[in-house]
Amino acid sequence: MFSSSTIDQFLAGARACIPVAISVAAYGMVWGMLARTAGLSLLEVVMMSGLVFAGSAQFVALDLWTATPTTLPIGPLVLAALIVNLRYLLLTATLRPLYPDSGLGRGALSMYLVTDENWAMTVAAMSRGGGSVAFLMGGGVLAWISWMTTNVTGFGLGSAIDDPSRWGLDFAFTATFLALLLGMWRGTADLLPWLVAALVAIATASSLDGSWHILAGGLAGSLAGAILEVRKHANQS
Amino acid sequence: MQTSPEALVAIIGMALVTIAIKAGGLLLADRLPRDGFAAAWLRHIPGAVLAALVAPALVSGSTAEMIAALATGTIFITTRNLFAAMAAGVLTVYLTRLLLGN
């Protein structure tokens, strides 16, 4: 069914992703521990990681999650996943040259296994004249296994802790989000959008209950960033 | 091992929008803007969402949380390690709460 060159490409893709799989594993461990604190059951952890399989969206979901089903904000959870993942439109669009025009339907399904990590490795390989669907899938499968196993391990480790706030673990959320945010810093162009997002979120959180501050701040900040970027380009040309 | 219909709906909903976006990028590749306003907007979303998540938690926090946030940031910038940064934040908040008695 698979030619040997396909298998070679799959393994090459997996190998290229080993260094980033280690960082996926570290994030996966933290997510598993936080998921337990947020009130997800083991089954819910496995389902979310297996089906959603998108790190940043899953971190944001933990902030919205409630242990009691009746108060679970389904709409905001789905909306937050949509907004946080919108950027994947740009990522998967760049993979278009890998697929023949006739195989786009199956190709669309394979996009499930695209993460920041194997996307970056595949695009790097494409720029060197290599890269293939099998290469992309090799990295994706490795990332999936590494994400799933460490989520479950992290969840298991969390069981050793009875009262999270007694050990300062209630701060783990804020600390993790802060570190994730700092990891996204690409330069001073990020300063103003982040500041706008922060101020709008603080203003919204103090006037509205629920999770509207994430949506309001996220939209205001990203729009501010886009306006700033487009203006800068206009001035340069 | 348990779940609820609500959680199931939420997780399946999240999964569906995620795969729809990822597949949408490939299928609409020839029509999506590669630069300009829309592309810039999409690129700025993840950072802005995280900033919106963190900011209210930080300003509503106590002194212990402010100090712990500084520790988290310092450790992350120096080590680039998420786990070390989170652990430093948690340890700092635990110790400062003991010291300040709140």
How would you portray this structure in words?
The complex is a heterodimer of chains A (237) and B (102). With 237 residues, chain A is mainly α. Chain A is built from twelve helices and no strands. Chain B has 102 residues and is mainly alpha-helical. The longest helix of chain B has 23 residues, at 5-27. At the A-B interface, helix 2, helix 3, helix 4, helix 5 and helix 6 of A face helix 1, helix 2, helix 3 and helix 4 of B.
Number of domains of chain A: 2
Overall tally of structural domains of chain B? 2
Quaternary state of this entry equals heterodimer
Distance between the termini of chain B: 36 Å
Q: What are the salient characteristics of this protein?
A:
heterodimer; A: 237 residues; mainly alpha; 2 domains; 12 helices; globular; B: 102 residues; 4 helices; extended
Gist?
The complex is a heterodimer of chains A (237) and B (102). Chain A has 237 residues and is mostly helical.
SSE map:
The complex is a heterodimer of chains A (237) and B (102).
Chain A: H1 4-16, H2 18-38, H3 42-52, H4 55-64, H5 74-85, H6 88-93, H7 104-110, H8 116-127, H9 133-158, H10 172-183, H11 191-207, H12 212-236
Chain B: H1 5-27, H2 37-59, H3 63-79, H4 82-100
Helix pairs in contact in B: 3-4
